[in-house]
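Quick one, tokens below. Sequence please?
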């Protein structure tokens, strides 16, 4: 293996590792919300309660500091990946993907800082926090996309020539998935601030009828929106994947269908059990995996299309 090939292989392995590591950091960030530990380091940023390494503090401090430490490590790794890709490849698309993952990492840090400094954490139930949480989720999709593209295009078997199109169905599925996930981020916040025992006891259809009831908190009223959007989105994405159950995209389409079914079933479990923490984490994990599966389907369609 030549030095160039070793350099390319190193960049690819690091990019693939980053996809997995970033996903773990994202999931731990969700646990910070579920544990209401976002104020574990007070309103200090980037220090924790005014210390670089907090020597005392409770469980919330440990949870929040762990998230900050792992996020900081992600930032360092992300810029190392950018250096490796820039050094190993001359392809513009690869360099831009690596640049974008570094920019999305920076945006993640800035969003985290904003949440802490504005105290949009723990029990805060403001509209501002709901909007930021939805944007936060979309930014994680951008981060995972850019990193996944870096890993995909840097693999040894990746075509280097002109390729076809992704397909309108995949683009529509991506937009729908983003919108459904944004509503999911707001719903997850509502389930955290207002768990089943802290909100009016009513069936699903009764909640639908009271969506416009101004006497209820907006997070409680919006809890019924996400399940409706999620079912519609699952049907659409499943339909698009079904249209691709032919070679050479059959494997990717099957993976999309499998994750869609798993995500729908887990969503039902979430509703029935009252959104326990473990189910919320698993739901977010499947949302990220579905995003990557839809991306893979589009990329395989693009590579399979005539030049």
């Amino acid at each position: 293996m030549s030095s160039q090939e070793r350099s390319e292989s190193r960049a690819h392995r690091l990019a693939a590792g980053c996809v997995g590591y970033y996903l773990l950091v994202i999931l731990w960030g969700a646990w910070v919300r579920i544990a209401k530990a976002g104020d574990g380091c007070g309103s200090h940023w980037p220090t924790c309660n005014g210390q670089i390494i907090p020597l005392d503090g409770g469980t919330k401090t440990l949870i929040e500091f762990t998230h900050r430490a792992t996020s900081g490590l992600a930032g360092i790794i992300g810029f190392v990946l950018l250096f490796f890709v820039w050094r190993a490849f001359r392809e513009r698309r690869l360099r831009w993907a690596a640049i974008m993952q570094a920019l999305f990492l920076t945006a993640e840090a800035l969003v985290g800082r904003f949440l802490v400094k504005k105290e949009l954490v723990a029990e805060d139930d403001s509209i501002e926090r709901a909007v930021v949480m939805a944007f936060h989720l979309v930014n994680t999709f951008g981060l995972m996309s850019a990193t996944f593209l870096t890993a995909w295009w840097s693999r040894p078997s990746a075509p280097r020539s002109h390729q076809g199109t992704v397909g309108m169905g995949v683009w529509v599925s991506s937009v729908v998935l983003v919108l459904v996930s944004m509503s999911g981020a707001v719903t997850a916040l509502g389930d955290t601030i207002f768990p089943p025992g802290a909100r009016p006891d009513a069936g699903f259809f009764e909640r639908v009828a009271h969506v416009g009831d101004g006497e209820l908190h907006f997070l409680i009223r919006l809890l019924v929106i996400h399940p409706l959007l999620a079912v519609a989105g699952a049907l659409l994405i499943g339909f698009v994947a079904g249209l691709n159950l032919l070679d050479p995209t059959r494997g990717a389409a099957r993976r999309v269908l499998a994750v869609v079914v798993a995500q729908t079933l887990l969503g039902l479990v979430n509703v029935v059990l009252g959104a326990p923490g473990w189910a919320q984490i698993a739901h977010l994990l499947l949302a990220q995996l579905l995003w990557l599966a839809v991306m893979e389907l589009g990329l395989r369609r693009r590579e399979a299309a005539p030049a």
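The chain has ten helices and no strands. The CA atoms of residues 108 and 139 lie 7 Å apart.
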